[in-house]
Amino acid sequence: MTKKKSLSAILEKVNRDNAPPGGWDNEPEYGKTYSLMGIAKGKSWAESEVKENEIASDAKVLAATEDALRAAFRAAGREDEFDGFLAELDEAHRENLELSSKVAASLAEAEAERVALLDEL
Asked: What pTM does this model have?
């Protein structure tokens, strides 16, 4: 076996053994929303896609949760702190979205490097 074939066989084995759920062709699609918790739990991008009806349902749950939290702050005599609490949640959400974007970019970059290495063989 030549060095080139040997290296090719090793790369194929490494790719096969380390492929993400759904294989290497599994990647996020532009414009779609994904649950990173699903990805972290080993689900594929397709399995982790958040559908529009789920987003609408989640929005209703969030609105009800916000109302319940506001009532809890009011009952505790701390209603004046509620807006600050929401601002902190919004900031955490923005940071999460930024991190999600960086993860998706890193995955795309790693895939491009993998493809380039395979093309060199």
From this structure: 0.43
